Amino acid sequence: MPDPRTAPQLGVFLTPDAERLPAVRELARAADVAGVDLIGIQDHPYQRRFVDSWALMATILAETERITVFPDVANLPLRQPAVLAKTAATLDLLSGGRFELGLGAGGFWDAIEAMGGPRRTPGESVDALIEAIEVIRLMWSGDRGLRRDGEHYRLAGVHGGPRPAHPIGIWLGAYGPRMLRVTGHRADGWIPSLGFADRDTLRAGHRRIDEAARDAGRDPATIRRLLNVSGVVLPAGEPSRELQGKGFSSGAFAGDPAAWADRVADLAQDGFDGIVLAFAEETVDQVRRWGEEVGPLVRERLG
């Protein structure tokens, strides 16, 4: 598990809303300037009001200078892994190594099937994910004549490449016992969401990942742990509160920068080395408070 004494990175989770594209791009640029470390973009191609997440990520990378961008998480059933690997490597090369790959086994199967994708059982979706990780890494190797047989994906002599600008991490959105074992065995990171899992479940997830990593001969500390959270960053001095009701996921929180710094430090004690905030209100002020006010306080507490 990562060292809880190290200050975690801060990220923002942005919605690829077609009707708010200028605002989304402005938020990304504000995050880059405010010192935020990561931008996560959800990938739900079947959402009629969303633009394509990959085209948006390319635009954000072109309009920023230092921030890392990743899909949070890529929808594997609608993204063929060999092509996904080439797209990820291309974004990494164009941005000078500022792209990482969040990857999910799939969900919302009615919507996936309606868009022409496969409907998979839980077991099939994990099997496909395991195969996809192998395909992606083979494609990143740049080797020629790549071949592999699989139930869901195969390579039949394709030439890999290009190689990414840096070793791209594959971070899995994982919750079930088998997915957590796959994370420990094969992945570079874990990115669950608070609300889909409570704190006790997340702690148990860390233990499963650590055990699987050790079984595979890996150091658990090499596996990144990022957590999606949701909430509001209030002006300094305003009282904190839990956010409940329509529009808020379980665990949503409203607090001023000092309260958020305490909350992030607490989550770091649980083993997370990155906190990605989905704002209840996506505004530039929220992004700036997160990066410019919460960030320094977190580093003061844990750095």
Automatic annotation (TrEMBL):
<dbReference type="GO" id="GO:0016705">
    <property type="term" value="F:oxidoreductase activity, acting on paired donors, with incorporation or reduction of molecular oxygen"/>
</dbReference>
<keyword id="KW-0560">Oxidoreductase</keyword>
<dbReference type="InterPro" id="IPR050564">
    <property type="entry name" value="F420-G6PD/mer"/>
</dbReference>
<dbReference type="InterPro" id="IPR036661">
    <property type="entry name" value="Luciferase-like_sf"/>
</dbReference>
<dbReference type="InterPro" id="IPR011251">
    <property type="entry name" value="Luciferase-like_dom"/>
</dbReference>
<protein>
    <recommendedName>
        <fullName>Luciferase-like domain-containing protein</fullName>
    </recommendedName>
</protein>
<feature type="domain" description="Luciferase-like">
    <location>
        <begin position="15"/>
        <end position="235"/>
    </location>
</feature>
<dbReference type="Pfam" id="PF00296">
    <property type="entry name" value="Bac_luciferase"/>
</dbReference>
